[in-house]
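Worked example 2:
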Amino acid sequence: MTTTYYTISQVKQEEHDILLDIWESSVRATHHFLKEENILFFKQTIHEHKYFEMVELACVRNEEGQILGFIGTNEDSLEMLFVHADAIGYGVGKALLNHAIEEIKINKVDVNEQNEQAVGFYLHHGFKIVSRSELDGTGKPFPILHMVLE
């Protein structure tokens, strides 16, 4: 992949299964602190509770229209940003974050503290840590950092 320009578009409901596959690919590549049963629990939770229907979705597509990564936002919060493992490091996440900041006007994000790559990504893009929760949104012991854009 050498492309540095990506098309950002809306996600169709029939593409939600593709998003779940991208989520899993991304998590397996970046969330090394999760065990297999954790990944399967979260994947099932996302599907059963229809998390993709609770947020405004946008995605990056390559020239063939294939989704490489996606964001989910709710008002001024970035609720999810996931990039397929094969597309990590090619500017997909940056393109999605810039879209979320400039077009959607997000200024908050919650990040797994143990996902050091993501924490560094958001710090690099001007976010700062304002608080920390010991448990994630499902009550599991995966600390969450609450960050805001400076």
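The radius of gyration is 15 Å. Residues 16-30 form the longest helix (15 residues).
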